[in-house]
Amino acid sequence: MITQLRRIWDRAIPSSANGDLHFDRPLLLFQSDDWGRAGVRDREGREELQAAGLRLGESAYDSYSLETAEDVTALREVLSNHQDSVGRNPPIVMNFIIANVDFDRGLASREKEIPLVPLIDGLPGQWRRPHLFEAYRQGIQDGVFYPALHGLTHFCAEAVRRELNVGGERAELIQKMWSAQTPYIYWRMPWIGYEYWDRELAADRRFRSLDDQRSAISRAAGIYRTFFAAPPFSACAPGYRANADTRAAWFGCGIRVAQNGPDRRGPYFDRQGMLHTFRTVEIEPAIARVDLARLMEDAGECFSRGLPAIVSIHSINFHSTLRDFRGPTLALLDEFLAALKKKWPALLFIHDADLFQIASEGFYFARGTRVEVAATAKTSTAQRAAG
Predict the structure, then answer these.
(1) The CATH number of the domain where 347 resides is what?
(2) Measured between alpha carbons, how far is residue 318 from residues 58, 77, 83, 265 in Å?
């Protein structure tokens, strides 16, 4: 499938560059970040952090942990209960952080690089999630999970290494976190930045160099390829912090879809042939109140403009280890999907690679059947960055 899509890209029409794409069918696509990323380990880990002096509970992300096999299976079952107008289940694009901090090595030494445990080697230290990886693969096999690349780490390793070398309160906080097998809690320490973006540097120097980004992305893509037995085709930068160097490094690893943050813009091809997408609907009940009527309005606005409804829904919304985010989210998701199908009978559920094929050739395949979807590029008055 991915090889076929790369051939499609070779035949993509250059004139579509910088033109927003509009479609003649209502399209729904879920993009979800942070899968595979460890947070607060479990209840015992939370107690260790509290014993170290952290007052937890001020933010939902104090209860961000890591999905369990049961969380993933419950999501798979809800998605499997819905079909679109061609009988396909809704797939969710799951953006994976492909490695986690090796806490024991990180505490015991001051290595030049932050020591990591790739997902292909399991989870670090005291972390236990029985059958989680099998649950991912079952959802992929069933066609309701579509993996994509989020990053090697979510934080900027250079920023963390710098603070550990400097010492002081920030280094002490990192050490407390790692002692409890927690890599970080972002809202408490935003100075860790994002993988390709160092918040503490001057504005014009915050993005890491092209060579640094290429190295990190190449390593992440290699781990991804081994873990999923296929190369990544779509990617979303941690914190949505990506620049032209990021996209060049992605492109060099075979990535052809660049996921961007919230915006009511249509997808478009940049000059190198990478398809850019933007998130137009937000379902984040773990961190913000969500109203079904408003979700339907947002989706309807997209469909009326010929844009895909691209839903942002982070993995925290499906966690249940420290707080039951999963139950309310799945109930809302089930209701949302049912309401969408009732109001828009021609609705199609797609993932990033489907959107790429539609944008390139005007059709995609669902359940072995060719589905025609007309895509029209409309030139925008605003110049798009070539990327």
Answers:
(1) 3.20.110.20
(2) 19, 13, 21, 27
